[in-house]
Each structure stands twice: as structure tokens, then as C-alpha cells.
Design brief:
The protein has 242 residues and is α+β, with helices and mostly antiparallel strands. It is built from seven helices and ten strands. The strands form three sheets. A six-stranded antiparallel beta sheet has the order 4-5-6-9-8-7. A two-stranded antiparallel ribbon has the order 1-2. A hairpin with a 2-residue loop joins strand 5 and strand 6. The longest helix has 14 residues. 23% of the residues are buried.
Length: 242
């Protein structure tokens, strides 16, 4: 019977995982450089790159453009049942949130927005496109639509500096009560890849959501959004009880 030789890259993967499990490579810290790993395991550059790439795909490591490769922190995540804003979630995770506004404009509602937001032909929506960052690293790209007739002059706010949810709650008196979300896995492409600083074909998590709020004692759909999350930087959890 012929013997089976374990590929060198797999041996390197196993060794790195053992170092992570034994906390020689600590959560949140940068692992040794490519050159150091080559010397440590006495293998080629191609072998190290394949091992590190697969560990990143499997969720052990995370690559940060311009900084290096880090041991992924599995404790960071957002509850799928939470109705908090992305900004609040980033703060809760101990990171500094920043936002970049790509566009903020009042436009005619298309048929999809008319239906989802219970609007009438001729109604307008406020469209807001933003990139959210945590500690300077982009983690999601979001396009949001709000019924403009409920939020007149909302476009005058600078949403790179202020929270959308805080604005609609405090300035417009809306109480957010529930939301319906869907989630699916998609691949990064075109401008989304550039916005999130990821390679083409990297898996992302796509959320679609409609949010309801109470305004003037009426429950209404007050927001619909589409949001792309970097799966290498953010994860989601469900807290189940029996």
C-alpha cells in the first residue's frame, strides 16, 4: 500500500492552528511576517501563502490591508435580534466608529420602494449610501431609503457625523419597534469590492431589511436598506434559550 504524504502547506496550517489554540499567537494580535513564517517552518513562500490564505478563509486569521495578518477575534459579533445601529454595535465591541457618506439625496421612489414603504406614486424617498468603518477599517456598505414625507429636510444632516437612528428618533419623534431581515451570502464585485477593500470574489454577508416605527401613534414602515458586511471582519450570532 502506498503511503500518504501530508502536503507541507497543511502541516503549516496545523502548526499555526496549534499555536493559536495554545495562545502563542494571541487573539487580535498580528502573526509573524511571511518571511518569519518561512524561516520558522523551513518551507517556501508559496507554501506559507497557501496556508495563511486557507486559514483566513476558514476564519482563523484576518488580513488587514496595509497592516498585516491577525488572529481573528471570535467574540466580536452582532446579534441578529438586535435593533441597534451599526454605529452602536461598533462602539459596543470596543472599536471606534467612523462613517463615509457616498451619497445623500432625495429622489422619486421606484416601484420596489413604493411597495415596501407603503408609498404612493409620486412620493419621494431619501436615499443614503454610506461606508461604516471600525478602527479605520471598512466593514460594511449600506444603502438606505426613508419615506421623505415622514422626514422632511433630513438631507440637511451630515450623516458622516451623526447617527441616522438617533436623528429619526430624536428629531422626528419616531420610536423604532421591529424589523424584518433576510441574510444571504454573496461574492464581492465591482464598486463594493473597492468600497470594502477586499479582493474580487471574497464572500460577503448581504442583509436586506425593512424597519417599522411608531410616529403619531401609527406604526409605519420607516426604512428599508441593503447592507453588505465583510465576513472576515464581522460575524453575527443568535442567542438561544430553552
Amino acid at each position: 500500500m502506498m503511503g500518504f504524504t501530508v502536503p507541507k502547506y497543511y502541516q503549516v496550517k496545523k502548526a499555526i492552528v496549534e499555536k493559536i489554540n495554545n495562545e502563542e499567537f494571541r487573539i487580535g494580535e498580528m502573526i509573524p511576517s511571511e518571511r518569519e513564517l518561512i524561516a520558522m517552518f523551513d518551507v517556501s513562500r508559496i507554501t506559507v501563502r497557501k496556508a495563511v490564505e486557507e486559514l483566513a478563509q476558514e476564519g482563523y486569521l484576518v488580513k488587514v490591508q496595509g497592516k498585516g495578518t491577525f488572529v481573528k477575534d471570535d467574540s466580536r459579533g452582532q446579534s441578529l435580534f438586535s435593533l441597534t445601529s451599526c454605529t452602536q454595535d461598533i462602539i459596543r465591541l470596543g472599536m471606534v466608529p467612523t462613517r463615509k457618506v457616498l451619497s445623500a439625496e432625495v429622489i422619486p421612489a421606484d416601484k420596489a420602494r413604493l411597495r415596501v414603504l407603503n408609498l404612493f406614486p409620486g412620493d419621494e424617498v431619501f436615499k443614503l449610501q454610506r461606508i461604516y468603518c471600525a478602527d479605520g477599517e471598512p466593514i460594511n456598505y449600506t444603502t438606505t431609503y426613508l419615506p421623505y414625507k415622514l422626514f422632511k429636510n433630513i438631507e440637511k444632516n451630515d450623516f458622516s457625523r451623526v447617527s441616522l437612528y438617533e436623528t429619526i428618533e430624536k428629531a422626528y419623534g419616531v420610536r423604532i419597534v421591529h424589523a424584518k431581515r433576510t441574510i444571504e451570502a454573496v461574492l464581492a464585485h465591482d464598486e463594493i469590492r473597492e468600497y470594502l477593500h477586499v479582493d474580487d470574489g471574497i464572500p460577503l454577508l448581504l442583509f436586506r431589511c425593512t424597519t417599522w416605527g411608531i410616529l403619531n401613534d401609527r406604526e409605519l414602515p420607516i426604512e428599508t436598506f441593503k447592507c453588505f458586511y465583510r465576513s472576515d471582519q464581522f460575524r453575527f450570532y443568535i442567542d438561544q434559550v430553552k
